[in-house]
Structures are given as structure tokens and as C-alpha cells.
Write a structure and sequence with these properties.
Aminopeptidase; globular; binds zinc ion; alpha/beta; 9 strands; 333 residues
């Protein structure tokens, strides 16, 4: 059986469609240097766009770890377009973000999981969350959801694609969960392993990983050592001021506490932190769901992207001030 993926009309600045991202990266870059650091299970190139800056702090931003989260991809593409042209894909300036981006040595990965992106619609804006869950999880041969978030003791790390009409955006094409790891020593997902190989020895101070749900919030660096915890509290403080000035909501720092509760299992954050000796920052932006009072007021599509760019701005600012470098030195020597 073949499932038809609904085609959703999106604004030009909502650049999360795999083919259109690929086309942009291959044809429109002038300043950025694109290269492939591997291939997905389905054979899609994994792209990184580098903006070199001799002697500057090296930071990375990643979108599209989860295929049902197109806003992260679109946000990295807006950052790329800002660096290329001085305005975002809607033609709007972001002076402070651009100033910071040009002061750093950036590595931008628009889509870490092209397989997952390829089986999901380009937007869930004004859709119900249940629709997104179907594409996030995937559909078994009998028509039921793949039990990604079943109430089990152990999360679903793997689902055999042969047992599914398709595995959803949480997985790569081989059926491996993209952001849950059995160990912090290697990844079963070839895309994450390729990312680790790219980052090992690169001298990155930090990676910002963009995800999407119904709300805006960042995660405490719970899988990291104590020197990293105040950095996320500083991120929160600065982000709250910026979001507040725009009249937007920002959730509290997820998982913070004294001390923060460590995660129950390994994420990519633990793997990359340990082996590439860097700080991992995770931010969840919005999808624009409807159907719950807590999703209101409904943001515009541009506000969703602008929230991500605001989150990226604070992340870059802390990197420029070498907060990540100091914590890395304290932990790794
Ligand atoms: Zn996600």
C-alpha cells in the first residue's frame, strides 16, 4: 500500500520541503560553502553549509532531526538566507542575529533526517496534533500507529520498516529512532553517526538542535555536567526578555531543577557531548497546532519562524561570549 502525503500550501519563507531545500542549497549559495557529510538510509545527501571565519568561535545549528518538524528546517534556511542576502526569506532584517552570525564560524545543517522529512507534509500549521502524531510515528501494516510513544518501560528505539506502511518522522528510513540512543558511545542511525564523524575534532564549542512541538521552550542540559547548567539559565533569562518584548510566550526551562533530573535514556546530546567535547543545546519551537486552548493565541507562520531565529540569536550570543568554551574547558580540560 502507498500512502499519499498531503501537499500543504506554505509561504515561501516556510522552506522545509526537502526538494526545495536541496535546490536552494545546490543553486543559490554564494557565501556559504555546501558539502555532504554522508547520506541517509534512503540515499539523500546530508548537507552542511559552512560560513568560515578565521579564528572565530565555531558553532553549529541543526534542523530536521525529526521529519515531522519542518519549522526547524525552515528556520535554518532562513538563517542561511539572512547570511546570504542580509534579510530572511520574507525579506525582513534581523540586525543583531546577522551581526552575531557574521562574527562566528558557523556550520549549518538544515535537515539531519531527510528520510523522515520525505514522508511528512511540509506543514502542520492549523492542523490538529493528532494528524502530526500519525506522521511522527508512522503507520503499521494493519493501519495502527507505530507505537513510538507507547506507555512502555523502554521507549521505541527501532521499528522494522517491513512491518510498517511507513515509519514516521521520528525514525530514519531504516527504522531507527533519530534522537534516542541505546548508548552514548555510538548511533545506530547512520545520519547521527555521520554527524558525529563530522563534528569529532572540528573544534565546535556547541550545537543547537531545533525541534518542534506545540510550545516554545528550551531544555536544561540535563545530560551534561554542572558547569553547563547556568548557561541554559542564562539563555532562558535573555530569551525571556526578547520573547517578552515581542509579546510571545516562552515556556520555562524544561527539566531544570536543583540539580536537574537526568534523562531516563540517551539522546544525541549525550553522544555528541561526550565524543565531540561540546555543549548541546535543544530548543523546541512551535508547529501552529489548533484544537487546544493552550495552543492559543495562534501564532502566525512568520512568528513561528521568528521565534526560532530569536532562540538562535541568544544561542549565538552566548557562544560569542565563550560561555560554552569555558564550560567545555572545565569539563574536558
Ligand atoms: Zn523533535
Amino acid at each position: 500500500m502507498h500512502i499519499k502525503i498531503p501537499q500543504v500550501a506554505v509561504p515561501d519563507f516556510w522552506l522545509g520541503n526537502l526538494g526545495k531545500v536541496e535546490s536552494y542549497l545546490r543553486r543559490r549559495l554564494v557565501k556559504g560553502q555546501r558539502s555532504s557529510f554522508g547520506a541517509s538510509t534512503f540515499g539523500y545527501d546530508l548537507h552542511v553549509v559552512e560560513y568560515p571565519n578565521e579564528g572565530a568561535v565555531k558553532l553549529m545549528v541543526i534542523g530536521g532531526t525529526h521529519g515531522h518538524e519542518p519549522t526547524g528546517v525552515a528556520s535554518v534556511m532562513n538563517l542561511i538566507h539572512l547570511l546570504e542576502t542580509g534579510v530572511d526569506l520574507d525579506g525582513r532584517p534581523h540586525d543583531r542575529l546577522l551581526e552575531l552570525a557574521q562574527s562566528l564560524h558557523l556550520y549549518l545543517v538544515p535537515c539531519l533526517n531527510p528520510d523522515g522529512r520525505s514522508v511528512c507534509p511540509d506543514s502542520f500549521y492549523c492542523g490538529g496534533i493528532d494528524t502530526c502524531v500519525a506522521f511522527a510515528s508512522g503507520i503499521q501494516l494493519d493501519g495502527d500507529l507505530v507505537p513510538y510513544d507507547a506507555d512502555s518501560e523502554q521507549p521505541c528505539y527501532y521499528f522494522d520498516p517491513a512491518e510498517a506502511i511507513f515509519v514516521g518522522g521520528q525514525f530514519n528510513g531504516a527504522g531507527w529512532a533519530m534522537n534516542r540512543r541505546l548508548s552514548d558511545d555510538h548511533s545506530e542511525a547512520v545520519e547521527v553517526e555521520a554527524l558525529l564523524e563530522l563534528c569529532r575534532g572540528l573544534g565546535l564549542h556547541a550545537i543547537l538542535d531545533l525541534h518542534a512541538c506545540g510550545y516554545n521552550f528550551a531544555f536544561q542540559a540535563r545530560s551534561h555536567e554542572p558547569p553547563y547548567w547556568p548557561i541554559m539559565r542564562e539563555w532562558q533569562s535573555r530569551a525571556e526578555a526578547l520573547f517578552g518584548a515581542k509579546g510571545r510566550q516562552l515556556g520555562k526551562l524544561n527539566g531544570d531543577g536543583d540539580p536537574p533530573t537526568p534523562p531516563d535514556f540517551f539522546f544525541n546530546s549525550a553522544l555528541l557531548h561526550k565524543h565531540a567535547e561540546l555543549m548541546w543545546v535543544t530548543y523546541e519551537g512551535r508547529q501552529g497546532y489548533i484544537g487546544r486552548s493552550s495552543f492559543m493565541p495562534l501564532p502566525t507562520e512568520w512568528e513561528i519562524i521568528d521565534d526560532y531565529l530569536t532562540a538562535i540569536q541568544v544561542y549565538l550570543e552566548l557562544g560569542f561570549e565563550e560561555h560554552y568554551a569555558r564550560a567545555n574547558a572545565e569539563v574536558f580540560g
